[in-house]
Design a protein that fits this description.
Strand order of the largest sheet: 1-2
Oligomer: single chain
Shape: elongated
Structural class: mainly alpha
Number of strands: 2
Largest sheet: 2 strands, antiparallel
């Protein structure tokens, strides 16, 4: 059994990144991962979530669920006596987000199915485009019926006879440009 050639996913030491370009790239990747995790927590636990992150250049990035206003109002007033309209709006927002997440999951499933279908079609196309002679394909020869075997045998005998004629012509010094044996 062969060993892996790559190191795979490695744990890195958490330390300050000195090179600015590496720092920006790492921030971008980690920010997206952080937002993805926050989205997962809000979807799985029906939790209100707020994440605010400032980039190394000072630019703010944020993620709120269900809305910034509802999360900030809960921070300002942990025991709110919200109005019916704001509760309805939050309920609508949560429902709409759930519907959109379900649509994303459905479309992602369809996308994966299409990717698999494309791979299958590519493989079938490659198989059809292969130029393998029937005698190189053991399975194909094994499926011949008696009539097909006789036809192929006759074709091979005719070819063998034409090749002998051509061989005799070449031995006698006949022109090599004669290709009449191929047309019979």
């Amino acid at each position: 059994m062969e060993r892996k050639r790559t190191k795979g996913r490695q744990k890195i030491a958490i330390a300050r990144i000195k090179k600015d370009s590496d720092c920006f790239a790492t921030f971008s990747k980690r920010r997206l991962g952080l937002f993805r995790k926050a989205s997962d927590v809000s979807a799985q636990c029906n939790a209100d979530v707020a994440v605010v992150v400032y980039s190394p250049t000072g630019k703010p990035f944020s993620f709120f669920h269900p809305t910034m206003e509802s999360v900030v109002s809960r921070i300002e007033n942990p025991n709110p006596k919200t109005s019916d309209s704001s509760r309805l709006f939050e309920a609508y927002t949560r429902t709409r987000v759930m519907q959109l997440n379900q649509m994303i999951e459905k479309l992602d499933g369809e996308l994966q199915a299409e990717v698999e279908r494309e791979k299958k079609l590519e493989n079938e196309t490659k198989k059809k485009n292969r130029t393998v002679s029937f005698w190189e394909e053991e399975e194909a020869v094994g499926k011949f019926d008696e009539e097909q075997v006789k036809n192929v045998t006759n074709l091979l005998e005719n070819l063998k006879a034409r090749l002998r004629v051509r061989e005799d012509e070449l031995k006698r010094g006949a022109s090599s440009s004669s290709s009449s044996f191929l047309l019979h």
